[in-house]
Amino acid sequence: MNVVAAGDGPWLDDAAGRLVRPFTVSNGRTRPTVALDLMSQVRATGAPPLGYLGPEHAQALDLCLAPVPVAEVAAHLKLPAAVTKVLLSDLVDCGALTTKPPEFPHHPTDRALLEAVLDGLRRQL
């Protein structure tokens, strides 16, 4: 068994993967206190967080120095989106992050947009 811990990163085992299961990071919580979409933009406020932060909270905060979507934070942390949303909502609750809903240039049911997506899918097949 080869266990690797990169700084404050997740503990990994070559065969088993992550040694700390994702939902232990959020203390078993599955629902964020703040409504976050995968495309919601989060950004650090610069204010020091109030209370204890785990290493994943600190990593998430470092990723949010510039506006970044929730999905991108989850990808960098290698955590499920549900867990990442809980971590980010903790940071919003303690004043360390601000959030902004996603901005869509088109209405999601815009016919031209849907046709462009369909054309792109057809080209892939």
Structure in words:
The protein is built from 5 helices and 6 strands; from the N terminus they run βββαβαβααβα. It has helices at 22-25, 55-63, 70-77, 81-93, 111-124; strands spanning 3-5, 11-13, 17-18, 41-44, 68-69, 97-100. The strands form 2 sheets. The protein has a 3-stranded antiparallel sheet, with no helix packed on it.
H/E element order: EEEHEHEHHEH
The average pLDDT is 79
Counting copies of identical and different chains, the oligomeric state is single chain
What percent of residues are in strands?
5-15%
Output the number of helix runs. 5
* Main sheet: strands, sense, barrel: 3 strands, antiparallel
Strand segment tally? 6
- Reading side by side through the largest sheet, how are the strands ordered? 1-2-3
Radius of gyration: 18 Å
Computed structural class: alpha+beta
Helix content: 25-40%
Q: Which stretches of 5+ consecutive residues score pLDDT under 50?
A: 1-7
- How far the N terminus sits from the C terminus, by CA atoms, comes to 42 Å
Topology (elements, then pairings):
Elements: E1 3-5, E2 11-13, E3 17-18, H1 22-25, E4 41-44, H2 55-63, E5 68-69, H3 70-77, H4 81-93, E6 97-100, H5 111-124
Antiparallel strand pairs: 1-2, 2-3, 4-5, 4-6
Helix pairs in contact: 2-4, 3-4
